[in-house]
Amino acid sequence: MRKTAILISVLLVLFSVQLHAQTTGMLKGQVKDNNGEPVSAANVVLQLDGEATPYGNKTDEDGEFIIINIPPGLYDLVVSRSGFQKSLYEGLEINVNQTTQQTVRLRPGNNTLDVVKFTVKNTKIKKDKMGTEKTINVDSIEDLAVSDVSDLIALQAGVTNVGGEIRVRGSRSNEVNFSIDGMSVSDPVDGGSALEVDTDAIADMKIYTGAFTAEYGNAQSGIVNIVTKSGSAEYGGKVEFKSDHLVNDGRNNDQIKFAIGGPVLAGLALNEKFTFFVNGAGSWADGFYAEYYESNANDDFMFNGVSLINTIYPTYDAYSSRDELAGFDMGTRNSNSYNLNFKTKYVINKNANLTFAVRGDRSVGDSFAWGWKYALDHFIEYETEQRQYVVTYDQNLSQKANLKLKASYFKKSSYSGPKGITRDNYLVQVVTSGELLADTTAFNHYVSDINNFGSALYDHPGYVSVDSDHDGVYDLGSAFKPSSDWVYDTQASSNDQPVPGYSAPGSIWSSFVDDETSSFTIRGDLQWAANKINTAKTGFELIQYDIKKNQLSNILTVYNDRRVAYLNSIFDQDDIAEGSTSDDLEALAASTEGLLTVLETGDEENPFLAIYTPEAYYEAAKASSGSRDGYKATPIQGAYYAQNKMEWEGMIVNAGLRFDFWYIGEDYEVLEDSGEYRTYKFEDDEKFQMMVSPRVGVSHPISDRDVLRFAYNYQNQLPPMKYIFTSKTPEDAQTADQVISVGNAELEPQVTITYEVGLQHLINEDWVLDLSIYYKNYYNYVSTRKVSDPDEQQVSWYEFISEDYASSKGIDLALDKSLSNFWSANISYSLAWAEGNNSDTIIQDENTNLREFPLDWDIRNNLSLNLVFRIDRGEEFFIPFTNAILPLDDLSASMTYTYASGKPYTPQDPETDSFLDPNSERMDATQQTNIKITKNIRLGSKNSLRIYMDIANIFKNINVDEVYPKTGEPYDTGTDYSVNGTLFPETSFVNDQFIRDPGRVSKDRTITLGMSYNF
What's the pLDDT band for 131 if we cut at 50, 70, 90? Predict the structure, then answer.
């Protein structure tokens, strides 16, 4: 029995991972009478929209109460006791993973007739806050000039948005873990967020940028925890439309959104018990490069009235086949995205409920790259889908204990490839067996010269490529010209010059991606408020992954050695018996799969040659074309955590320990160039790893206006799986035509050690200051080293290793003003340094850098300012310095201003072309101002129309995103374009066309108009 108990304890410690994301909050307080004496046995119940909720408790002998497992939101608190008037506290705010404190007063009187109402003044100081965090509730989102979750995150202190990637306090982009309703939606292969959720679905969002408790794992730098909305006892919802091309051209972006929630079975007693919420959105856009999806090379290269391109090329027009209705394009556009979220909840009884949710998104479109401007016919088209299914059982074991059991299934699939070309048609079979049998003289033309006879009769492979002349340009029944024609004239020279930078019209993107990742997760979490001091949490999680990578590059290249091997795998011609008669050969051909006949060559050494069917030649060509990169792996992650939150009057301590483990399996399947899979087995000491993470946070209320906090975090994150599982192994180095990169099952967990001290200060009833000072060390980032075969030194490969490191330090300042006197404000400022020996995993022959340099996202100063002016319904606003009242109410206007000092870049010496110290120069600072104006029009007690205008970059600030290393300028390369000492004006003109990529600078102003009907 004892051994069994020990085994169970060990398993509990081992089983789980990734992220335990809390989705509820807690309420603590004390009930007192007029004399300040505690009131025992008082009933304390939370109400929502005037209806009692299951969340309540009774006070103990000291008049104290604890209510756990409360979903986030604004509640009313009702307290009653015989002999006292009932007290109603309105507007009590509950936040995720926080303890709200509330003292209640009861007056003597009749508890059935008299109700004393109070308005709660929610404290701006969070005394149990251990690290830097920010809570964003649903009420504040609609007023902000933001469009998605990433925009919300980027406004927080300590967060930078570089190149569209979120980075927290000097971290890499894959170090932020995203969860929805407590279940991770991060990509296990590459990291970062995989599943998007629309802002309409968000009930509460919490962003952790500093230290966090033991319940959160597999995240080195940040946590984004989203809790979605649930339905209520009454129906409600919205329909919304917005467009950015009603005032100016914009990016031809239209969005349609809807949301509805309420009882599943209306009119029955289940109204409050069985509810649902569903929302969805569709977005259709042509994007930043919209105008360049229509181009003609002959027109664009006009110089002094004459086109420098003599070859006539057709115009590419992505919009020619579109239908239009009332000024709006119908059907898909260059970029299209859709998302849907559905959640239903059944309250079994006051102590138990069951929730089921399904959500997903889909993105599909045609990519653009400036270098492919004239070759979009067969550039990248893509499609990405994500799906998540979650079921949650929530059980209050007592008034102080809660158990949550969850299971989820998540799947992500990604496809990309050349537009108009699939993996089934980039090679075309030219004749069938039936056609060949009807013309026996054609036999020899379908014989590969695999015996090196050197005869033209044996050089037809039995297929034709979409690029039959192997110049990279589509020419199968096409009017595209050879790539050699992609030249321009110079008047002073008779020699045509190749067009620089741009791919030739008709060029084919030569890669396919067809990846799929899924995960099945089970988890249990137990919370126990043992007494007024101790609140314990513990939980486990187990995730089973199924990763399938299937990528094909260089599709236009057919490797003859692989083709011959494929044919020989069907029938090895060396096995044809010498001396066989013709009859025997015919019988052999008829009985052997894949052979049409056997040819007598007349050669003494090789008297017979197998002639395969055209179908066999075609399949052989497909199997031997391109380079495959793929594998199948089924690793397991898990975790167990335990923590205790101890709350005293002058100190709050949250201490915990987290155990994470990683089991990569016995083996994984490697996709070979032949298209077949082979098994690669791991060594016993490579299969399993365990990580331990201690977490300690201390909060010390100095006064009722000031709280000091300290935190120490040891945060682990498993390295991206793409560095563990690869399609190449050391054995492949023997036959590879170039040095390969192989995975490493012994990569160590990436580690961040965080030291943080912070201060909250209540300036007055409206203003709160939060100051954080931090220092972070990052270890075990993935790097590479070159490894040589001990038996054959000339054979080598690159191996991924855990060697790179970084550090960051800084000061984060957040200043928040709550809504009063018609306005609110949020100001965030960060002063930060982020340095390391490499900004990313790079392939390198030499040893890794020992020096630390500024990382690519090392932005010294970051500032965001958000101001909101709001007149609620029925309020009167006097225009300043006048006695006039603004004849509008239910109106809001917001302004968001962001500033960031320049990104670093690595300069290049214009004389020697050598690169100087990494990231030793800086680009110019960037800034942008967005505004949003919203007017609500009431159409009834519950119906309203909301009209708004959103202007992005209202002042048309010019922000440089990318520069050339020789000059530090976006449109000057510093390169000498002279030919043999002569600089032709045509050459300067043509090169200038390419280097002036508009994507290097952002300066557009976008005006979006929107309208929603709310009911």
Answer: confident
For the chain, helix (H) and strand (E) counts, in that order, are 9, 58
Where b means 16+ CB within 10 Å and e means fewer, 656-694 reads bbbbbbbbbbeebbbbebebeeeebebeeeebebebebe
Measured distance CA(66)–CA(59) in Å, rounded: 8
Cα distance between residue 745 and residue 651, in whole Å = 44
Measured CA to CA, the distance from residue 497 to residue 985 in angstroms comes to 13
| CA atoms of 739 and 211, how far apart (whole Å) | 41
* Token code pair at residue 938: 């009431």
Q: How confident is the model at residue 460 (pLDDT cuts 50, 70, 90)?
A: low
Cβ burial of 583 (10 Å; 0-12, 13-18, 19+) is exposed
The per-residue pLDDT for range 885-905, each reduced to its tens digit, is 888 889 999 999 999 999 999
**Residue 578 in this model has a pLDDT that exceeds 50:** no
CA-based nearest residue to 508, from 565, 460, 465, 571:
465
pLDDT tens digits, one per residue of 617-649? 888 889 999 999 999 999 999 999 999 999 998
Write out the two tokens for 309.
């391109």
**For tokens 């299914």, what's the residue?**
389
Q: Which two tokens stand for residue 216?
A: 């959160």
Which pairing describes strands 741-742 and 64-70: parallel, antiparallel, or unpaired?
Answer: unpaired
**Under 8 Å between Cβ of 66 and 532:** yes
Six-digit token pair at 555? 């599709």
Owner of token pair 């467009």: 243
In order of their start, the domains of the chain are 11-119 (2.60.40.1120), 133-228 (2.170.130.10), 427-510+555-626 (no CATH)
* Vertex 677: Cα angle to 671 and 683 (nearest 5): 90
Average pLDDT over the chain reads: 87
Coil, strand or helix: which one is 564?
helix
Q: Is 18 left (phi over 0), alpha (psi -120 to 50) or beta?
A: left
Percent of the chain residues past pLDDT 90, beyond the cut: 56
In which element (H, E) is residue 985 found? Answer: helix 985-995
The closest of 718, 132, 30, 71 to 353, measured between CA atoms, is: 71
* Residues comprising the chain, all counted: 1015
pLDDT tens digits for range 316-365: 999 988 888 888 888 899 999 999 999 999 999 989 999 999 999 999 99
Name the percent of the chain lying above pLDDT 70: 90
Query: Residue 981, by phi and psi: left (phi above 0), alpha (psi -120 to 50) or beta?
Result: left
Between CA 923 and CA 162 the distance in angstroms is 13
SS3 101: strand
**Can you list the pairs that 162-165 forms with residues at least 24 positions away whose Cβ atoms lie under 8 Å?**
162/856, 162/857, 162/859, 162/903, 163/961, 165/192
Both tokens assigned to 474: 């589509």
Q: Rounded to an integer, what distance in angstroms lies between the CA atom of residue 404 and that of residue 409?
A: 17
Residue ranges of E strands in 648-795: 652-663, 667-671, 677-681, 688-701, 706-717, 741-742, 750-762, 767-788
> Are the C-beta atoms of residues 563 and 639 closer than 8 Å to each other?
no
Q: Are 93 and 122 in contact (CB under 8 A)?
A: yes
Question: Which secondary-structure segment (H or E) carries 595?
Answer: strand 595-600
Residues 273-291 as b or e (16 or more Cβ within 10 Å = b): bbbbbbbbbebbbbbbbbe
CB atoms within 10 A of CB 434: 8
